[in-house]
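Sequence and structure are kept together here, with a separate record for every protein. A complete record is shown below as an example:
=====
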Amino acid sequence: MLALLRRRLLWAAFTKLFKREAQFLKELAAHPRTPLISRGLLGMATLYLVSPIDLVPDFVPVLGQLDDLLVVGGLVFMAVKLAPRDVVEECRMRCGMLNRPTVEVSRLRLK
């Protein structure tokens, strides 16, 4: 019973974090001072995620999803790194990701 509760709390924390990150990326792409290269990388990540064409087809058990994770994660990472730091901080503040206590996921260990 306790393990089920921990899993639910972990899942709730993960979905909350995912929603915040998605909102942050949306804010970053819409910000007027975001460089064109960062916007392009975010657009490519979105297109790759929804596109039926993949490097490794999704019906291959693990590799199909792993390549999506690596390609999209790499594109998003590069887009955030290429954006000016003050723009990134401003977008994170708009989404409520700065100056607010975050959920401590490391304390919700599964046994």
